[in-house]
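Please fill in the sequence for the structure shown.

STRUCTURE ENCODING:
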């Protein structure tokens, strides 16, 4: 069986990739196919996350065991075949390619194709330019500051946060009249 995955980015609107891979291939093979399709280095630590319908991260599939507690299952890319964790069309995943800044690709298993096998994964659709793999941290922090300032200036009115700037005794009600502060 062959799985067809579609990848998109929240950083680049016209970016997408489609990758076909054998269902028995490992998550490591999928990782390498993704990195090859976007011309990224394979030197960085990255992870897959299985997600629910609202993109909430569930199970993590890691490149290396980071010493998690022994009561948690550790899914390693090299040892985990795709069909062990992905069983149905529509399965959502996140591939975090930059841990420091939490940058990632959003993925969905679009289709499973029974009766077909692939020796090696292939990228069948390549649209747009991928976001850069690693960002300059000074630039990244500057962008975050600009985004926060824009959110504050565009969306928030100080009165929405704290209410009226005028104090009104009647707003407190009579519940405090009986208190003795002596």
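FILLED IN BY: designer on duty
SEQUENCE:
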């Amino acid at each position: 069986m062959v799985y067809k995955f579609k990848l998109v980015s929240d950083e680049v609107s016209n970016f997408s990739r489609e990758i076909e891979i054998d269902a028995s291939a490992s998550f490591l093979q999928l990782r390498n196919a993704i990195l090859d399709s976007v011309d990224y280095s394979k030197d960085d630590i990255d992870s897959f996350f299985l997600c629910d319908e609202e993109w909430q991260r569930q199970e993590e599939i890691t490149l290396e065991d980071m010493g998690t507690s022994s009561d948690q299952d550790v899914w390693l890319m090299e040892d985990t075949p795709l069909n062990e964790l992905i069983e149905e069309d529509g399965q959502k995943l996140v591939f975090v390619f930059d841990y420091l800044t939490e940058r990632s690709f959003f993925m969905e298993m679009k289709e499973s194709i029974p009766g077909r096998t692939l020796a090696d994964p292939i990228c069948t659709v390549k649209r747009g330019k991928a976001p850069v793999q690693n960002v300059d941290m000074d630039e990244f922090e500057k962008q975050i500051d600009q985004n926060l300032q824009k959110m504050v200036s565009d969306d928030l009115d100080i009165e929405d946060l704290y209410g009226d700037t005028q104090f009104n005794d009647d707003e407190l009600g009579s519940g405090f009249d009986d208190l003795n502060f002596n």
